[in-house]
Structures are given as C-alpha cells and as structure tokens.
Amino acid sequence: MPSLTPPAARGTAPAAALASVLVSTLLPASMARADAHALDAVVVTATRTEQRVQDTLSDVTVIDREQIEAAGQSTLTELLARQPGVQTFSNGGPGASSDYYIRGAESKQNVVLIDGVRVGSATTGTASLQYLPLSQIERIEIVRGPASAVYGADAVGGVIQIFTRRGSDDGMTLDAFAGAGTHDTNEASAFLRGGDERWRLSLGASVLRTDGINASNSRRSASSRNPDLDGYINRSYSGSVSFTPVRGTELGSQFLYSSGRNRYDSRLTTDDRNEFENYSGSVHIRQSWNEDFSTTLRVARAVDSYDSITSVVSPFRTVEDSSTLDARLKLAGGSLFAAVEHRSQDVDTAAIDRRRDIDSAQLGWSGRIGAHTLQLNGRHDRFSGGQSKSTGNAAWGYHLTDEWRIHAGYGTAFRLPTFNELYSPSSNFGNPDVGPESSRNKEAGLVWQRRGSRASVTLYDNRVDGLIQTPGTNLPVQNVAHATLRGATFAASTYVGHTELSASLDLLHAEDEDTGLRLRRRAAQSGNLMVQQHLAWGRVGIELLLVGDTYSTAGQRDWVAGYSVINLFGVWKVTPELALEGRMNNVTDREYSTVYGYATPGATVFVGLRYTPRL
Prior knowledge:
five-stranded mixed sheet; 22-stranded antiparallel beta barrel
C-alpha cells in the first residue's frame, strides 16, 4: 500500500530518475538510423495548415496508428497519459469519468477536436475522452500551449485533435481484430477502407465490453463505496467518403458515433450508471482554385449526451453546430490562412435549457526568411450577450545550424464559462454575470533533430487571470482567482539499430497565486520511457510511467501518493496478413490511485489477433 502521509518535501526522485534516463537516451543519438517518416510526420493542428513536425514552432506530439495498436486494451486517456506535457486522472476503471491536463491546464481549459469538429459538453466544459474508442482512431495530434488565436475559446493549455480512419486510393483492405483479457474484457472491431483516384471510402465498427473493477477504494466514505464491479460497454461506428468529380474539387463527409454504458459508485446500494451517446460528423467542399489558393467550406455537428441514472434519471445533452469557411494562400515568403466561423451550443438538462452563439474571424501567417521562421495569428470571437474577446500569438524560430533551432513565443487565450457556471441553480452556484477566464503565455525552447532522432526542451510561463470559482459555501461563482502554470517539458526520441527509444520529463509548478497553494490534480513531476525493439517477426517493447504526488481537492486536501507503472507489449507477425498482439499493463500489480478515493486496475493482460488482408 502507498503511504498515506504527505511527504515533508515533495520528492524529486521521479524527476531525477527521468533526467538520468533522458540523458542516457540522447547519448547514442549519433548512431541512430530510422525510416525518414520518423521526422517527416505532418501536423495540421498547430496552425490549421499542413506542416512537417520539424517545421512547426509549436510544441507538438503526433501519435500514429502503430502506437495506437501497441496500446492494446488501454483507454484513450491512458494513452494520452504517456505523452509529454499531458496528465490524466480517472475516477475508476475503463469508461469512468476522466480529466486531462495539458501543461497544468485542466480539461475545461483545453480544446478537443475530432476530424476538425469541436466536441464536448457545454455543461461541464469537458470532452468525454473516456468514451472514444481507440479502434476507430488513425492519428492523434497534441499541441501544447495557448491556441485561442487559432481555435477560439477554451484553448488555454492546448489542443488534442483526433483523426478517425479514412479511405485510401490503392484498392480495398480489411482490418479485423478480436481480443480478450483480464476482468472478462472482450473487444472486436472491423474496418474496411479503399478507393481509387476519384472515390475514397471507409467504414468501421467496434464493440468493447469489460466487467471492470470496483471503482472505489477504502479511502472513500463507506456510504458511497458500493462493492460491486463497475462494468463498461461501448459500441462505436465510423465512416467517411470523399469524391473528386473534377481535379481540384473534393466533396466529403465523415462521422464517429459511440454509445454504451458505464457503471460508477455514488451510493452504497444503488446500481449507478451513465448511459451515453456521442456523435461528431461533418460535410465539406474543398476547392483548389490554383496551385496557390484553396478554400474549404465545412458544416458540422457534435452531440454529447448521457443519462445519469441513480435513484432518478438526470439527462444531460449538448448539441453544437458549426459552419466554417477558410482559405489558404501560398505566398513567396510563406502562407496565409483566414477563416470565418459560426458556432451554436444548445444545452438541455433537467435544470438548464439554454443556447449560446459564437461568431469569429481569424487570420494567420507563417513563413521563413533565411534562418528565421515566423508564425503570427490573430482572432476575434463575439458571443451571446454582446461580449467579445480578441486573442493573438506570435512565434519566432532561428536555425542555428541545420540540426539546431531555438524558438520563442507569446500568446493569449481565454475560457468561456460553462453553462453550469452560468445557470446552475444548485446551491446558488450559477452566475449569469461571470466572465471569461484569460491567460498570457510566454515560452522558449531548443530543438535538435537529425534523421530519425529528435530532442527538445520547452520552458513556459502561463498566467491565468479571472479563474472561475465559488468564494464560499452557497455563494455563486465569481472571477476571483489567479493561477500560475510554469514548467518545462523535455522530450527525446531516437533509434539505435533496430531499437526505438523515447523519453520525456515534465516539471510543473501549478499554483493558486492568491493562496500560494498547489492546484489540485497537478503532479509536479511526471515522465515516461519507452523502449521498443523492431524485429523481423514483429516488435516487443516496455514502457515506464512515473507520476509525482497530487492533491485531489483544492486547498491541498486529499493527498494522493506518486506512483510508477511498468507496461509490456508486443506483436508477432504470424504471416504478412495475420498478427498476434499482446499487452500487459501494470505488470508489478502496483496498487495506486490517480484520484483520491478511486481505484485503478491492477495487473492486466490482453491478447488479440489482427487480420489485414488486401481484398
């Protein structure tokens, strides 16, 4: 059992261990050799235009399909927890309510997109990442740092964009998978993709079911600690189609739908559960008018809906509609991006039936002049009630050599109040006069990269003003607090022969400026190490995740000890079309929590078969 007493001084053992690993990882970098794609990955989330990872001035991570498949039975939030600058916290096992933090900014202060469509609940302000199935995801991009000048409200800490699997132009292929594991976990999925020069099609379906674990542990009050298993089931479907009637014109549509049930504990004897239904989809017309100028018109809808079932049924539903027109123009010194957007958020709960409209316009420019790289963005958002907010960011990079680059940036961001914070009647919580939170971020970094190898350090200082909190019991929320989110992210990846190594270390100082106390659910140190051996018959790997201590409640209450977790994974290519995949999470059966009073799974095993024939 972990110690239940907070340390006198919050230890630096995790930080020291990761620093040592990071240094040792970088030492053999000169021996590295890898496929060119290791650094040629393209990212679009940073500026909404395509850029190679090594060309962007943002602090980014790209998770590809191979990494997603290696995650096995892990949830999306568990996969994100192993990425630089990201911490996640879960109220139990698979399907349980989860929070995600980027550079110390909480879930409400980050934006989540699926194929360019913003998703999430307008009542809680968070996206239900725990319900998004990895089987339907092709790629994930994470941008760390303020992005309101690109994406508008709520991008204080960063952006997570999820791309579903799409069609291809080289014939039909099938990806079928079936697996089983600990806690009576079963998963099956099938994905069909294909196309030609004019048509691209994809269609996928999956089902995941597990008996789960008892979500509560002994630190939770006995009256809310139901000893039953809290199971989870998720059924999901995705699809896309694109058609090119003439050269330069593309018509397309895509969707992702998931529904299911997760059980949780709030009372001793009741069978508490959420029955959820989430959807995101869009249609678009993309027109390339010439080699330098293109436009895209997109109309989208996202639905976040669930019924909380205890002794009563409490429905929560958010429908967000959006329409966006953007334009891209290539110039001699760079490229110009412009967009106008309209969004509407409709909320329907037992206590709140409200709508909010947001209109915005933005302009961005990126270019390179000699050894200098520049990125400028500005945006203006106007929302219901006559209020408005303008944000901007500027970034500069300088190539010291072909392999070394320094960069610096400054950006502003804001978060709109949630509908709960505006209108909730519970305990006088809501306040229709509460205003947006705002932030000012400064950062600087150093990047080294060579074919197949990359190392970076990014320092940031994000000041958040007007934090929305309640000043006392039975008092409405106010913009009464200020916070400092200051830290450093170290990341490195390389190949040594056929061995792939990656490591990251995050140091975070997240403080309530008014009280001098640590903000809740932010570990001061966290990091990870991954070693993967690529073999003729497949690959095997090991992961180490280290997370420092946290407090689950504001005011440095409900202390949770730090922890370390070791995971193993592997793939055996039985034939070119058939592979056996396996994963062991928490191999030492470590007993730990990420949230006070809630349990996490012990040692788990998951094994599956993947069949990928060309049809």
